[in-house]
Amino acid sequence: MNLNTPRWWYRRDRKHGTVLRMLLTPAGWAWAAATRRRLARGAWEDVGAPVISVGNLTVGGSGKTPVAMETLRLLRAAGVEAQALSRGYGGRLEGPLRVDPARHTAEDVGDEPLMIAAAAPAWISRDRVAGARAAVSAGAEALVLDDAHQNPALKQALSLVVVDGETRDEEWPFGDGAVFPAGPMREPLKIGLARADAVIVLLPTDVAEVDPELVDVFGSLPVFVARLAPEGPPPEGPQVGFAGIAKPWKVERALKAAGCDLVDFAPFPDHAAYSEGELKALADRAAVFDAGLVTTEKDWVRLPPEWRARVTNWPVRARFDDEAGFAALLKAAL
To answer: How does DSSP classify residue 14?
Structure first.
């Protein structure tokens, strides 16, 4: 069962969740040790095409999927047959297989691969090496790995770490640095950054500049700034929003910043599989306000077809401040 992300994970002080944090700390030590052992035993296999990893250091909420999609777009615009490869988290199929948005559902392949496949060729495979080989055999000249910074199966030509740039209201992307489940980290910050080739700080649409204190954390690593940009305005009129992502409060904040008349908002756990009862409850809530329903693209692809017609999809895309510089980094890796 998926649970909502604890908001206190993203506070640097230890005043929030004190007792629970203390109880979970030994489990965090075990998680970090297991990750360290897995990385040390990694094969780092070369499959004959450059692999670009788009990952993060936390368990979710950094915006790596929009960055992976933009990385694919820039590579393909440069004439490179770049294709995506994902584990297919949340899907029932093991792969390797190429995702077909006309045939597959989020229950088959996971929500993020389904999103990516609408814009570029995308593969899923629980076995990353088998999936990479299948993609290369099908003509992939470069692979963009979604969420693979802690996966040592494939040799990586470039390892990108995506970091949430939100630092308002006492938020900090790494919390107090504690490893899951005591905090949001997949591994200790310094260890994770040591394997990175560059950092991408993803800013919300209504934040002008990166917090200098955050940039200082990355030391000598190249830092690129990307921004989440809506593809269009939010729907007109009163709206009830909902989202099942790692940080649902970011969607609520973004909708309001974009001028949405948001009368209510419902958070759900990341990758939530919406039941008919939950969707009917959302529709009933919207009816109280004579409002529409709006959600993210990632949530919308998980909805049953009959509900997609009743809910507005509000997609956002990542765009780089220094697009030419980031494209040059990709070219050098190839």
So the answer is: S
